[in-house]
Write a structure and sequence with these properties.
The protein is built from 4 helices and 9 strands. By secondary structure, it is of the alpha+beta class. It has 2 domains: about 45 residues; about 180 residues, Sandwich (Immunoglobulin-like). Strands 1, 2, 3, 4, 5, 6, 7, 8 and 9 form a 9-stranded mixed beta sheet that branches. The radius of gyration is 29 Å and the shape is flat. The N terminus is likely disordered.
């Protein structure tokens, strides 16, 4: 009888030990699943810029020609005008992104203006433009994003001398970004967004020499390509602009 009681107690103790050890798929598996799911989510959020916009005159293009109707006679422009067209190509890993926001920062160099040689109008040396475009329902794969400036901006304010781009998700988290510059004192490929030229007051608020004249003037006019003639070019490369 004593032997049977001892065996019963031993069986109960063994059962308690087994119950105390997490089985496969139990608490230990659940604990490991949480960081694994977070890692998978982070991996899906990955986004890379595969081709950054060019700067200088290479960033200018003549617009595609769309023939007019028969009742429009002749053209007003005698010379072919060039747009500033900045395009980035990027790769996404997630099956879908609900929203991606592209924020552009562009500096034009006035000394390169085609209709304002040697800055005869006394403009500040640089003009700064910024705009944000949000795209919706981005599937996994390779895409493009682009902004444009009308030929009048190129003719009056010059070529792009520095271009920055920051891409954020619908939570406002930075997924990718970069900067290209040929301006002395403005760093290409900064280590972080905070170190980019548009976030540095010593650059954005700089004065010309010992004067009170601004080195950089803020202007408006930078447009997403969907609002320009360039919307007709390779439309399948671009996602829907969120309203």
């Amino acid at each position: 009888m004593k032997k049977m009681i001892a065996l019963a107690l031993a069986a109960c103790a063994a059962a308690q030990v087994v119950a105390a050890v997490p089985a496969r798929g139990g608490k230990r598996a659940a604990a490991n699943a949480a960081p694994a799911a977070a890692a998978k989510e982070a991996e899906d959020e990955r986004l890379s810029i595969e081709q950054f916009p060019t700067i200088g005159r290479q960033a200018t293009l003549a617009a595609p020609n769309v023939p007019g109707t028969s009742n429009i006679r002749g053209k007003c422009a005698t010379n072919q005008r060039r747009w500033i067209v900045l395009e980035a190509k990027y790769q996404t890993m997630a099956k879908w992104h609900d929203r991606l926001t592209f924020t552009w920062h562009v500096l034009l160099d006035s000394k390169t203006a085609t209709e304002n040689k040697n800055n005869k109008d006394g403009l500040p040396p640089y003009s700064y433009f910024t705009t944000s475009t949000t795209y919706a329902n981005i599937p996994r794969g390779r895409h493009a994003a682009s902004v444009c400036l009308h030929p009048s901006y190129y003719e009056r304010f010059g070529e792009p001398a520095a271009v920055g781009l920051v891409i954020t998700n619908d939570k406002g988290e930075v997924l990718a970004g970069d900067c290209e510059s040929q301006v002395k004192g403005i760093e290409s490929h900064p280590k972080s967004v905070e170190e980019a030229f548009w976030n540095k007051s010593d650059i954005m608020e700089a004065k010309v020499g010992n004067t009170d004249d601004p080195m950089i003037e803020r202007r408006e006019g930078l447009l997403d390509r969907s609002k320009t003639i360039w919307a007709l070019v390779n439309p399948d490369d671009y996602e829907l602009v969120a309203q």
